[in-house]
Amino acid sequence: MTLEFAPFIPWLVIAILAVLATLLATLGFLRGLRGTAIRFTASLAVLAALANPLLLQEERDPLTTVVPVIVDRSQSQQIAGRAAQTDEALEGLRERLARFPNLEPRIVEVTDPGDSDAPSTKLFEALQTATADVPPARVGGAIFLTDGQVHDLPPDTQPLPFSAPIHALITGKAGEFDRRIEILRAPRFGIVDEEQELTFRVFDDGEPSNQPADVAVKMNGEDLGTVSALPGAETSYAFKVPRGGNNVLEFAVAGTPGEVTDVNNRAIHLIEGIRQNLRVLLVSGEPHAGERAWRNLLKSDASVDLVHFTILRPPEKQDGTPINELSLIAFPTRELFVEKINDFDLIIFDRYQHRGVLPILYYDYIAEYVKNGGALLIAAGPEHASQDSIALTPLESVLPAAPTGEVHQAGFYPRLSEQGKRHPVTRGLDGSNVEPPQWGRWFRSVDVGDAAGETVMTADEGRPLLVLNRAEQGRVAMLLSDQGWLWARGFEGGGPHVSLYRRIAHWLMKEPELEEEALRARAQGRTLEVTRQTIGDAPGPATITTPSGESIALNLSEIQPGLYRGERRMTETGLFTVANGDFSTLVHVGAVDAPEFRAMVSTTETLAPISTESKGLTTRLDDGDQSIRIPDILPVRGEVRVADDRRMLIRLTDETVLKGVNTLPLFAGFAGLGILLLAVSAMWWREGR
Question: Do you know which InterPro entries this protein is assigned to (predicted)?
Answer without folding.
Answer: Class_I_gatase-like (IPR029062)
